[in-house]
Design goal:
mainly alpha; two-stranded parallel sheet; two-stranded antiparallel ribbon; 15 helices
């Protein structure tokens, strides 16, 4: 500010300080200091040249007396007005800095932990937007079946079926729902299987040896020659944390007349394989109000009432009524 207001041209500007620690912080351009020190360091480095800062001993520092409250007897010839004497001499005779002045930064002033906040903009998928709006699997399948029929009508208007939804349309819609859920939850596993690569051991599907059947991710393994149905040999894989999974478990719980978790698990495994199925089924059933009311323990009224006082406690052992004599 002083340099901007002066009309006198300046050939060079020098800054002096008697603090070796402050000088080391100003000259440091690699270490990240704390917020308080770092803001002031950045302001000094932006407003001045780092090379213009020098060290002045306390003995010849004029500003040191001002900070200590030194009141001069003579104002005319005092260094407060004249400045330090070494400034009137050539630059070669100015105070020389010693190697001891190169003080390392204080560890308490260095920023140890750095917090970074990153905002990632991800485009939500069709399934993540539409599926949570439905509270039953029946309605969700019907809505997707209508979407599929409308898509077919846009392509072939003359041959598209009209009227109520048929069973094959609902089945096709259900498989399409499973495919969209898998594309969102198992995208990495699907890409690895399609390229012929192995699934890493860190994946929850590693032990299931998944395969792709008609665009759906199914359980592989050694049951392909078992004398059971195809759905039981290769059940469709579904993630545990998904809205569609919650709807499937809720519908199975109602259709089985609020059966136990083991019964629901056995029934679902005939066609589906949910990752962590037992834990997921138990957590879903625990939210059923009808089951919670049915399995609630009856309260014991005797535990809540105070214990009646026994008349025997009022009888004194040494009283005549409590003594007996044998004749």
């Amino acid at each position: 500010m002083v340099q901007r207001e002066l009309d006198v041209p300046l050939d060079a500007v020098w800054h002096w300080t008697d603090s070796s620690s402050a000088l080391s912080i100003i000259r440091n351009t690699k270490t990240r200091f704390s917020v308080y020190v770092g803001h002031r360091q950045a302001e000094i480095q932006d407003c001045t040249e780092i090379s213009s800062w020098r060290h002045v001993p306390k003995k010849v520092n004029v500003a040191d007396g001002l900070s200590r409250g030194v009141y001069p007897a003579d104002f005319i010839d005092h260094p407060y007005f004249q400045g330090p004497a070494f400034l009137y001499e050539p630059e070669s005779r100015w105070p020389v800095e010693s190697a001891a002045l190169q003080v390392p930064p204080d560890p308490n002033e260095v920023r140890r932990e750095q917090e970074m906040v990153m905002n990632t903009n991800t485009t939500p998928s069709f399934a993540s937007i539409l599926f949570p709006k439905f509270h039953s699997m029946f309605r969700l399948i019907a809505a997707i079946a209508v979407f599929l029929r409308y898509r077919e009508w846009l392509r072939q208007k003359d041959t598209t079926r009209k009227g109520p939804l048929m069973l094959d349309e609902r089945r096709r819609a259900e498989l399409e729902i499973f495919r969209l859920v898998q594309e969102s939850a198992f995208a990495k596993e699907l890409s690895l299987i399609r390229t012929g690569e192995n699934i890493p051991k860190s994946s929850p599907l590693y032990r299931l040896r998944p395969i792709i059947v008609d665009g759906l991710l199914c359980v592989g393994g050694r049951l392909q020659n078992a004398p059971i149905g195809f759905d039981e040999r290769h059940p469709i894989l579904l993630p545990a944390k998904d809205h569609v999974t919650d709807l499937i478990i809720a519908d199975a719980h109602k259709d089985s007349l609020h059966a136990s978790p083991n019964q629901i698990t056995n029934e679902l495994r005939k066609r589906l394989w949910i990752v962590g199925m037992k834990t997921k089924v138990k957590s879903s059933i625990s939210k059923c109000l009808a089951c919670r009311r049915y399995h609630a323990l009856a309260s014991n009224k005797w535990l809540r009432c105070p214990r009646p006082e026994s008349p025997c406690l009022k009888t004194r052992l040494w009283s005549p009524e409590a003594t007996c004599s044998a004749r």
